[in-house]
Amino acid sequence: MKLYYSPGACSLSPHIVLREAGLPFDLSLASTKTKKLADGSDFLEVNAKGQVPVLELDDGARLTEGPVIVQYLADQKPESGLAPKAGTMERYRLMEWLNFITSELHKSYSPLFNPAMPEEGKAVYRARIADRLQWVDSQLAGKDYLLGAQFSVADAYLFTVSNWSGYVGIDMSGYKNLAAYRERVAARPAVKAALEAEGLNK
């Protein structure tokens, strides 16, 4: 398999999952700004949407959209415990978290990276994210991870998205449970390895 990624982008989530699952893979650096790959070829030929992540399977098929990719990866290694069994209520809880993170958090951070967004608009999004993070913080009370004691693909995604806070001026100091959670996730060997590979552990 090959993962097309951009350092620190949402592609960090499947990158972490690949390492957590112990699956063999190659990395291919893609610029979401220039839409070029490291060899100068056109990333749009890989994904016409121009976004990472893209997972290229050994047969050449490609999957896009992070929440889908991480579930696919978890299902390749069910013994990893990265996703509950399909069809169970626990699996739907996982999907509930993945949908929340992608729609309520991920997409709310995006305008904060847009230099054309007026500061007044960014303030609205920061307030929205703060409200959502407060709820996440409450859900983490007494739990190691989002689903309880077991690390899942949703944790890889939340860790990735919440990492953006420091770059866009969101104060994380008020979220005690989330802070402890982020430390737990960051200490995992697979997470450390993914951050190292993307040059993000400085």
Automatic annotation (TrEMBL):
List, for all copies, the residue spans of the domain called GST N-terminal. 1-81
All copies of the GST C-terminal domain together span: 87-202
Question: What domain of life does the UniProt record list for this protein's source?
Answer: Bacteria
Q: Which InterPro entries match?
A: Glutathione-S-Trfase_C-like, Glutathione-S-Trfase_C_sf, Glutathione_S-Trfase, Glutathione_S-Trfase_N, GST_C, Thioredoxin-like_sf
EC number(s) stated in the UniProt entry for this protein: 2.5.1.18
Does the record's keyword annotation contain Cell division? no
Gene Ontology molecular function: any one:
glutathione transferase activity
Q: What gene is this protein translated from?
A: gstA
Q: Which UniProt keywords apply?
A: Transferase
User: What is this protein identified as?
Assistant: Glutathione transferase GstA
What broad class of enzyme is this?
Answer: transferase
Task: Output the PANTHER family linked to this UniProt entry.
Answer: GLUTATHIONE S-TRANSFERASE GSTA (PTHR44051:SF8), GLUTATHIONE S-TRANSFERASE-RELATED (PTHR44051)
Q: Does the keyword Nucleus apply?
A: no
Any Pfam family from its record, for instance, is GST_N_2
